[in-house]
Write a structure and sequence with these properties.
By secondary structure, this protein is an alpha/beta fold. 29% of the residues lie in helices and 29% in strands.
């Protein structure tokens, strides 16, 4: 799956139920399920911080790690930058007001 968007997430601090929703959303994206995951929650950051923080985090990760970005909107400006860097990604709306994007190396 390369650069797809679809689907529904919610809540501010992560509760046990919100974590379950994140896991379900990650499964929906088609990201590798057996890979380690690192999560970045950028819902409370204004533009361009979510973009910048995500792009800064990616080179720090091991090649097999999936980055899970939790946001309040689809990161439209991030997609072309991920394409340029050769990453695969997928975005789903998890719950009202929360979007999950998974990013992994192709």
């Amino acid at each position: 799956m390369f650069g797809t968007t679809s689907g529904n997430f919610g809540g501010e601090p992560v509760s046990m139920s919100a974590e379950v929703n994140v896991s379900a959303a990650v499964r929906e994206t088609g990201a590798p399920t057996d890979a380690p995951r690192e999560r970045i929650d950028v819902r409370n950051l204004g533009p361009p911080k979510p973009l910048a923080e995500t792009l800064e985090r990616l080179p720090e990760l091991d090649a097999e790690t999936v980055l899970v970005q939790v946001n309040d909107r689809a990161p439209q400006h991030l997609y072309p930058k991920l394409d340029d860097r050769g990453y695969e990604y997928a975005t789903v709306e998890a719950d009202e007001g929360t979007v999950v994007t998974t990013i992994w190396q192709a």
